[in-house]
Design brief:
Elements (H helix, E strand, L loop, with lengths): L1 E8 L2 E8 L2 E8 L2 E6 L8 H7 L2 H19 L15
Antiparallel strand pairs: 1-2, 2-3, 3-4
């Protein structure tokens, strides 16, 4: 698997991977990630994939990250969201 392209959209990092002609798309934000895998032939080229990535798509991804972050915070209800550094 190789990284074919990467960019930043708003506060999300986007990476496209290609392996054996199949495309995968990874969107990351705040140590969370969403991965989209496509079947053979669904994506014809990098330009085709990029044409599918509309502002609406990124908006949906952002909303999913909000829910993922809320769900993750429930794993550690007694801890603060941000790491704190001990002052010496």
């Amino acid at each position: 698997m190789r990284v074919a392209d990467e960019w930043t959209k708003e506060d999300m990092r986007v990476q496209v991977f290609i392996m054996n002609g199949r495309y995968s798309l990874k969107v990351e934000k705040n140590l969370l990630e969403q991965t989209f895998k496509f079947r053979d032939g669904q994506i014809e080229s990098m330009d085709h994939l990029k044409s599918l990535l509309t502002d609406a798509f990124y908006g949906y991804c952002s909303n999913i990250f909000i829910h993922m972050d809320l769900n993750r915070s429930k794993l550690f209800p007694d801890m603060e969201q941000e790491d704190t550094i001990e002052i010496i």
